[in-house]
Write a structure and sequence with these properties.
Blueprint (H helix, E strand, L loop, with lengths): L6 E6 L10 H20 L3 E8 L5 H9 L3 H18 L6 E4 L3 H16 L4 E10 L4 E2 L5 E4 L8 E2 L16 E5 L7 E11 L4 H10 L7 H12 L4 E3 L1 E3 L14 E3 L1 H20 L4 H5 L3 E6 L5 H15 L13 E3 L14 H8 L10 H10 L7 E3 L1 H30 L14 H22 L3 H22 L1 H4 L10 H22 L4 H11 L35 H19 L2 H12 L15 H5 L3 E12 L2 E10 L4 E6 L7 H4 L3 E5 L5 E3 L2 E3 L2 E2 L1 E3 L5 E3 L11 E2 L1
Parallel strand pairs: 1-2, 1-13, 2-3, 14-15
Antiparallel strand pairs: 4-5, 4-9, 6-7, 6-8, 9-10, 11-12, 16-17, 16-19, 16-25, 17-18, 19-22, 20-21, 23-24
Helix pairs in contact: 2-3, 4-7, 5-6, 6-9, 7-9, 11-12, 12-14, 12-16, 13-14, 13-16, 14-16, 16-17, 18-19
Bound molecules: zinc ion (ZN).
Length: 714
């Protein structure tokens, strides 16, 4: 790096406090940010690491409605859980704040007032949808109607979750309010807009010219397509009551749009940190000598590269120096998705791998390791349980862990548990090469870290342990020891090998620390040295451990991940996803078979729901037009079902109960608004309702007389 900044302000995207976060989130923003921050701290740089919960937006009140509780209860619950999950996995924020705090509301309002009073915002009157019965304007999400693209009758005013089309409420056929069920009416309302179109030249100059070389190509590319597509004024206010109130008398009933208030959350968190620490926050946001870096996933690029920088510029703040956005991480061949239950939450990993009796906090590093080796830095990547096991067992355990362990075992066996001396006269080529490799590595690793190339940086560190293993293998001190009776001077060869291996071990602790902090800590304990040794300036040095110093007995750094664990996780993933998507006809069948409960009486009634929960289901009568067996799947039938307005392909787990020919023409009840799901490579668009008796026999559910296909069921 050319000029070293005076201080660093590192932010990681504020997670939405409406649910647990999965490892795709962790790998996308929080882990790389943490590695970078830990590295900067080891370099004694002035660095502040900011994050917190994004607690506003329409999704939170909707989530509250779904869970039959209040928005406050939702954010309180998820804020605490997410915060703990991050801490357990070693993400070392200096503050994990919340946008529901008064200091955030003040900060966001001040931002708005500053921009508005300087004429940087535009006011426009527009027509927006209004619910006359609920007496409120309706956010796009609160309006539901039929998708003009795929005819899904439950498309939202902003998006159809069936076909993925981006929509606006105007595009919906027969739109109605989710609050009252009535068709919404248009009503005039005034909103404040950020005229992004006025800042195109600035953005072009700043990003497309100024950062074309030091920002990731995917980030610059996305910015270019946004800017070239023509920027539009963007509303910064909306008619809603959950959020930061617009600080103007004439804006009663309006709040700041969540995209406007959320990034200001970085500023308010810095202010709260200042209150807590007694240190000045202003230089972090105003002094040009501050390097601001936003760590985000690619879905956040427009906010952090286009919109927030315009706000910062207008407000007189510094601009981000870099926005190393990551691509997405998939899971076992499919996109991670909370709604489809195809995911691994941080909480799940912590529960399954980090119990005290099962690896403890140390196992956080196994996950950190694997996620970094497959970091989606330049393209989408994929988490597989087999890959996790391999990375842990054949890299962490057999390269890094094995080298450290052998060094400790041999040092105790051949050198009396003390750091042996280095005999300069007895050094051979292999010794010198090992010392040289050690000396040149830190510069290489820090160069990669400074360029946000975490995957390669970690690879270099692991390769050092691999090299050291080979060095030890070549020197064979366990063989040399047998020659001591005849050649006592050979003790010098043993001393040199183990002296070098011990100094390499101390160096490995420094180099691995940003990536695997729990491991570094454990290594310090084994070497009986203080945290200070982890200063990056010590990396590459040969005198980290003093001659004659006695070290602790060896302890394994990592544990193996067993085949049974991998199998259990794969089954868990499939079961959770099937329970959510395939519905009762397979989930109930499965549970019955596994628990041997067929014939053991009716299942208990599930937890109570409110009418709205039920109303979310779109049930339709459909006619089975065709049925065929799915290759290599004993239980599945591929059905073509006529829903009146369209024909659907639905994969159903009923093949053990019905022959295809006997069900063609039958009328069935279909869950029409179930998110599509791939089963054996076939996209299934909906689910057929089935009754199941105590013996596990399935029966179709349908109208008792023929009715028109597509008829609603309620
Ligand atoms: Zn659609």
């Amino acid at each position: 790096m050319m000029n070293q900044p005076k201080r660093y302000l590192i932010t990681a995207a504020l997670p939405y406090a409406n649910g647990l976060k999965h490892i795709g989130h962790l790998a996308g923003a929080y882990l790389p940010a943490d590695i970078y921050v830990r590295y900067l701290r080891a370099r004694q740089r002035d660095v502040l690491f900011i994050c917190g919960s994004d607690e506003h937006g329409t999704a939170i009140p909707i989530q509250a409605m779904k869970e039959g509780t209040t928005p406050r209860a939702i954010i309180d619950k998820y804020h605490e859980r997410i915060k703990e999950n991050f801490a357990d996995l070693g993400i070392s924020f200096d503050i994990y704040h919340r946008t529901s705090e008064p200091i955030h509301h003040e900060t966001a309002q001040e931002f708005f007032t500053y921009l508005n009073s300087r004429g940087e915002l535009e006011v426009k009157e527009t027509e927006q949808y209004y619910d006359e019965e609920a007496k409120t304007f309706l956010a796009d999400r609160y309006i539901v109607g039929t998708c003009p693209v795929c005819a899904n009758p439950r498309a939202y005013g902003d998006q159809c979750e069936n076909c993925g089309s981006s929509l606006s409420p105007e595009m919906l056929i027969e739109p109605h309010s989710t609050l009252s069920g009535k068709p919404p009416v248009k009503r005039a309302t005034r909103h404040w807009y950020l005229p992004l179109n006025k800042h195109e030249e600035f953005l072009r100059e700043w990003i497309l010219a100024g950062h074309k070389d030091d920002w990731r190509a995917n980030v610059v590319g996305q910015c270019r397509s946004w800017i070239d597509g023509g920027l539009q004024p963007r509303a910064v206010t909306r008619d809603l009551d959950w959020g930061v109130k617009v600080p103007l008398a004439e804006a009663e009933g309006k709040v700041l749009y969540v995209w406007f208030d959320a990034p200001i959350g970085y500023v308010s968190a810095t202010r709260q940190w200042s209150v807590d620490s007694g240190k000045d926050w202003k230089p972090y946001w105003y002094d040009k000598d501050t390097k601001l870096v936003h760590f985000i996933g690619k879905d956040n690029i427009v906010f952090h590269c286009i919109i927030f920088p315009v706000m910062l510029k207008l407000h007189g703040n510094i601009l981000p120096d870099n926005v190393p956005a990551n691509e997405f991480m998939n899971l076992e061949g499919d996109k991670m998705s909370t709604s489809r239950n195809w995911k691994l939450d941080m909480q799940d990993y912590i529960d399954d791998f980090m119990r005290k009796d099962n690896g403890g906090p140390q196992l956080a590093d196994s996950l950190r390791y694997y996620l970094t080796t497959i970091a989606p830095e330049t393209k989408d990547s994929e988490f597989t349980w087999k890959g996790f096991q391999n990375a842990n067992n054949s890299e962490l355990v057999s390269k890094f862990g094995n080298f450290v362990n052998r060094t400790f075992v041999l040092m105790h066996k051949l050198c009396g548990g003390k750091v042996p001396p280095l005999h300069a006269g007895a050094l051979d080529v292999a010794d010198r090469e090992m010392i040289a490799a050690l000396g040149s590595l830190p510069g290489k690793v820090s160069g990669l870290l400074e360029e946000f190339r975490f995957r390669e940086a970690l690879f270099e560190v692991i390769m050092l342990s691999d090299l050291a293993n080979k060095y030890m293998q070549k020197k064979e001190p366990w063989i040399v020891v047998r020659t001591l009776a005849a050649n006592p001077e050979n003790q010098q060869l043993i001393d040199n090998c183990l002296h070098i291996c011990l100094q390499v071990t101390a160096n490995l602790a420094i180099l691995i620390n940003p990536f695997l902090p729990f491991t570094a800590k454990k290594m310090l304990h084994l070497m009986k040295v203080v945290d200070k040794m982890l200063d990056w300036e010590n990396a590459g040095k040969m005198k980290l451990l003093s001659v004659g110093y006695s070290l602790r007995a060896p302890e394994l750094l990592f544990r193996q991940i067993e085949d049974a664990e991998v199998k259990a996780q794969l089954e868990k993933l499939k079961a959770a996803s099937a329970a959510r998507d395939a519905g009762p006809e397979t989930a109930a069948g499965k549970a019955g078979q596994q628990d041997g409960q067929a014939g053991s009486g009716p299942a208990p009634v599930k937890e109570e729901i409110v009418y709205d929960d039920f109303a979310r289901l779109d049930l339709r009568v459909g006619t089975i037009l065709n049925a065929e067996k799915v290759e290599k799947a004993d239980k599945l039938l591929k059905l073509t079902v006529d829903l009146g307005f369209e024909q659907r392909t639905i994969v159903s787990g009923i093949a053990m109960h019905f022959k295809p020919a006997e069900i063609i023409g039958r009328q069935v009840v279909v869950v029409a608004n179930l998110a599509p799901r791939k089963m054996r490579g076939i996209e299934s668009n909906g689910m057929i309702l089935m009754a199941e008796d105590g013996a596990g026999k399935l029966y179709f559910v349908g109208p008792d007389q023929k009715v028109g296909a597509g008829s609603g069921v309620s």
